[in-house]
């Protein structure tokens, strides 16, 4: 097992393997993944005195074996316990690995009472992390775009790193169910474009480290590569020379990395090149790459994050929220089977509160990946505690066709997230942000899991407590369970979004994007606030949803309060479902949110004896910043809306 | 004469020397500056067929001679013409040079009718440019902080440049009367700090190029140099070791550059180190450096731009406008004779409209330099035409003690400006921005000059027109004379200041600085706008002025309209002296300003045949940007205040 000095073990400290390590274990299988399982068990036994066997005859506490007839697919497994033996029967080598980590999660309880056979298989076949890592270091963005955990774990500036840590990373990801990683930024700059060709060896080296943990490597590519790298005059997806270039190039990729996953593409978006330049559409572009990948079983992830980022703020008819649907819904049915349209969970851009993207319900004949943002670009940048699993759970459980219809998790074939990992000693900047990465993988495996239960799992694995385990568990739940809603309270209200400092996106600036070309406006004036996206009087965005939501969102009376300002421009005196006015709600939530941030800090003090002192100190420092920032949000938002509305706070609190 | 290929000759094209070059000229004097004069004349004669002589006996069209008894000081000269001879009698070698350039300015008229003796001498003894150049290139700021004309003319990235261009620069500066240049940024970073010690040779090389044009070189130094460069434990100005270090270091500077001008210091300001760290004040700091410089005749320029840049926006009692006076006025009388307190023209920071800094009237026993900003940080960044001489004329002619008192130009002993020059082919980015540099030098020599006359001088020198000279002259006056007021119209209204995008300061962002620590607020709410700086109800800043201004500014009725929002928070319905309300004034000026910018562009089209085509095209491109930007300002400002006030435009124009 890779053990890294100076790097926190996250949810796989040695103690997590105590229950397995002290037992007699049989592992059967001769695949690289079975070898990994054996190595894990052997390592645990070396520490805790158990034994590893490969002989079918004998009595074992734990048996891990393959059976392709198990009926749970290549990644699934059946877990059972009777007659004093715990058994994992896996449908394929990956299932063996996931079964092992299921036993690790259960710890001693896996070796307790009898357990009738439980079938486990992932709900989503691809559970993927997109790294926005660059090779070069950008003077403002740093090396990882929207990265808040230091530099890349794949590259030092300019070249490949020692990859020991990448092996450990793969192990952590496998333990929460992730099976694919795109290694580089979707904004593919000149240096990184070459990972497809003369720097492909760097990708292969990463793939070698991740393969033992069942993780396939994907690559973000620049759509203009045939021009930039191939010296062709065009990147037109219907041009034969271009198609041949991609075919040849892809063939070379697979010759080097036989289990390569495929390409990720951000095209015709925020300045990236794409098929529009040649009068082609997104299906033309995606299918061209899909065709190049098909012979090798690869896929292309084609992002639906396409909008006009040079909008005129004066133009009220253009609505960024509409853009992905307007571009992609008409193309439904035209994408190849191995062309996956990757849709952000909301129509704008990873805000703390957005409706679910209408694209998800609009492309029944297209394979869809739903993209979440684990990196906390708009949710506190890993300086704030903001446990995001409750938000993701809501997204995955949302039923676009109403209470009797399917959920987002049913519709999506894949779940993808932007990674929050860097070369930080705690992996994720904020130590507690590890929980987001863990929970993302687990939800991608089983979208119905309860976020509080997932937090429980993560706590149990991550913090082998010497003292009272109940106390730390309680404190962490108190701090983290509601932290997303707390963050929502002290930032942009009622789904209106943004109000962040332009560029870096940290901290408040209510008008920061109001008069910019980015399409993210709130239209606050002295009378009211919010974006009219109705069909009746606004941009018509509500019409992109199927019933009942197209009607629910259309009506200010029926629209859920938390999305009111996303869909409607209302007077400050508009009364919410709880009887509060919008302006009073703004004041109330902002005072409450800032108070709750302060309460988090107080609670954390009580955990001082239960976690390593360095970790405690680091979280305390970050909580200090969160409290400061929450107060800043509170005061700027309240002052801004007080100056606009003139409405006094019903409770006479201090507004500046 | 340095003639540079690919670099515009600015106000010294060869044609400017036509009148001299065709005549018989006698130059007497044996100084390096007399040699320069001779070289200039010889060069002109080579082109236009005249002759240069050094023999007193003979008949000459032009005589340039020294007479230390002339009574006009070392830089002055007496110009006269009779009996067909034009004579310059200079009080010293520099006067010879300035006399030559006076004859150049007059051209043929210097050789026309008789002229009774005219004494010329500079009103201000030091006329200085501060370069904010760095050796290294900052990823965001570039090489020149607030530079809008490319990189430094002194350094390529990391090291010294070929300095041929610096010689040409010195020549241009001498021709408008400038006699001192500080070569590096007042924010002295690590690399540039070493210009004082092991990189001093780079400063000496620049001094060698500027010396023939009567320009002394000054250096911005880091107050913490004894620690950073000298390895001392302290930079305490009262510490003997520190004083000895500065004495030794300064001695070495003068051993290398005997006519070195002195140091420029930004201390305890915006994060720069200073005497506060040691419990000392600005006089202690400045005097320590003055003592080190005194034996060699050097001076220290100590900037009064000191304020709390980490202010809490919630704190209404702190007023950045007060800061310089609060820090410096109590120290009056404590500065050495060679310690010059350098005060920005306004109390905030080079806004398009500010009152004159009250510091200027508050330190009768201190030598003061008034600092202007030729680089257009807040006035269009050399993308907009904004001829600043009318503003500077107002500042220099302002009478702090009322109509019968002295002017700012009377009180100041020096005039300093932040340079607008870079390695751009036109020197100043915008070709028409050359006029600002020219006018600054001329106003520092003679603060009473009329800005329109100065523009005339500049046009006559810069554009030797083939066609109708009157037409180009008229067009440029139409575009430039009122361009400062046009810029004022379409940007922040009525002296309120800022409302620019944070960081780069280009373009509008009304609330951009409203909730930041920088102390630049407008306090606009639904009822009114402006900063209450009165003694009666505000920050008390008005009390820093002597009468009558302390009373004029205190009263909303008496306060000049253009400064109303600088001094008062007033309702949108407040009626200005012309009978317009504040809100209607905002609308009217912004519609008018944007229209006037468009009219500038139209006028420029008519000059197409009168200036070189590349210059015409460059200005046209920049005017396109100015028109676009002015429209953006118009719409953002109008929309912002319409949303806040709800007041309809009296003329029903489009507000978004």
TrEMBL record, chains A, B:
Gene Ontology MF terms in the entry: alpha-glucuronidase activity; xylan alpha-1,2-glucuronosidase activity
InterPro entries: A-glucoronidase_C_sf (IPR037054), GH (IPR017853), Glyco_hydro_67_C (IPR011099), Glyco_hydro_67_cat (IPR011100), Hex-like_dom2 (IPR029018)
A Pfam family of this chain: Glyco_hydro_67C
GO cellular component: extracellular region
Glycosyl hydrolase family 67 C-terminal domain sequence ranges: 428-653
Domain Glycosyl hydrolase family 67 catalytic: 119-427
SUPFAM superfamilies listed in its UniProt record: (Trans)glycosidases, beta-N-acetylhexosaminidase-like domain
GO biological process: xylan catabolic process
Keyword Zinc applies: no
Alphabetical keyword list: Hydrolase
Protein name: Alpha-glucuronidase
């Amino acid at each position: 097992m890779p053990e890294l000095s100076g790097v926190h073990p996250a949810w796989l400290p040695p103690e997590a393997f105590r229950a397995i390590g002290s037992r007699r274990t049989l592992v059967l299988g001769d695949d690289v993944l079975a070898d990994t399982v054996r190595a894990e068990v052997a390592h645990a036994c070396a520490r805790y005195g158990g034994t590893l066997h490969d002989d079918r005859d004998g009595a074992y506490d734990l048996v891990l074996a393959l059976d392709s007839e198990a009926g749970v697919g290549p990644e699934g497994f059946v877990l059972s316990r009777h007659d004093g033996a715990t058994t994992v029967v896996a449908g394929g080598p990956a299932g063996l690995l996931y079964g092992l980590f299921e036993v690790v999660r259960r710890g001693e309880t896996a070796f307790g009472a009898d357990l009738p056979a439980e079938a486990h298989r992932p709900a989503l076949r691809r559970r993927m992390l997109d790294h926005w890592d660059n090779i070069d270091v950008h003077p403002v963005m740093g090396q990882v775009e929207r990265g808040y955990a230091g530099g890349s774990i794949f590259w030092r500036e300019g070249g490949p790193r020692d990859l020991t840590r990448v092996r450990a990373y793969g192990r952590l990801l496998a333990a929460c169910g992730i099976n694919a990683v795109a290694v580089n930024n979707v904004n593919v700059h000149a240096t990184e474009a070459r990972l497809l060709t003369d720097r492909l060896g760097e990708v292969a080296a990463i793939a070698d480290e991740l393969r033992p943990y069942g993780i396939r490597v994907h690559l973000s590519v620049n759509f203009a590569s045939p021009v930039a790298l191939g010296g062709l005059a065009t990147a037109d997806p219907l041009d034969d020379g271009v198609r041949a270039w991609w075919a040849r190039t892809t063939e070379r990729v697979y010759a080097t990395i036989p289990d390569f996953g495929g390409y990720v593409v951000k095209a015709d978006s925020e300045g990236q090149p794409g098929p529009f330049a040649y009068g082609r559409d997104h299906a033309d572009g995606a299918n061209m790459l899909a065709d190049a990948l098909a012979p090798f079983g690869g896929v292309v992830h084609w992002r639906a994050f396409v909008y006009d980022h040079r909008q005129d703020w004066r133009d009220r008819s253009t609505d960024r929220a509409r853009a992905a649907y307007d571009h992609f819904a008409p193309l439904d049915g035209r994408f190849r089977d191995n062309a996956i349209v990757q849709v952000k969970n909301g129509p704008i851009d990873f805000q703390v509160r957005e409706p679910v993207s209408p694209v998800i319900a609009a492309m029944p004949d297209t394979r869809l990946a739903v993209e979440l943002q684990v990196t906390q670009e708009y949710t506190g940048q890993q300086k704030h505690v903001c446990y995001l699993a409750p938000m993701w759970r809501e997204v995955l459980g949302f039923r676009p066709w109403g209470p009797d219809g399917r959920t987002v998790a049913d519709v999506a074939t894949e779940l993808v997230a932007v990674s929050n990992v860097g070369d930080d000693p705690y992996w994720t900047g904020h130590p507690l942000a590890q929980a987001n990465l863990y929970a993302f993988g687990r939800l991608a495996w089983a979208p119905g899991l309860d976020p509080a239960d997932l937090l429980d799992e993560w706590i149990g694995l991550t913090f082998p407590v010497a003292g009272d385990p109940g106390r730390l568990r309680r404190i962490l739940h108190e701090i983290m369970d509601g932290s997303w809603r707390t963050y929502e309270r002290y930032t942009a209200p009622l789904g209106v979004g943004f109000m962040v400092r332009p560029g870096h996106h940290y901290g408040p600036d209510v008008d920061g994007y109001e008069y910019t070309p980015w399409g993210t406006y709130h239209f606050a004036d002295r009378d009211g606030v919010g974006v009219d996206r109705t069909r009746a009087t606004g941009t018509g965005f509500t019409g992109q949803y199927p019933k009942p939501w197209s009607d629910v969102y259309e009506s200010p009376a029926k629209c859920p309060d938390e999305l009111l300002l996303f869909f409607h421009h209302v007077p400050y005196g508009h009364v919410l479902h709880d009887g509060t006015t919008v302006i009073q709600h703004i004041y109330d939530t902002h005072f409450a949110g800032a108070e709750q941030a302060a309460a988090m800090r107080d609670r954390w003090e009580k955990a001082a004896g239960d976690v390593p002192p360095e970790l405690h100190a680091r979280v305390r420092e970050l909580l200090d910043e969160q409290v400061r920032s929450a107060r800043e949000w509170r005061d700027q938002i309240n002052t801004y809306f007080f100056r606009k509305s003139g409405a006094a706070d019903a409770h006479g609190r201090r507004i500046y």
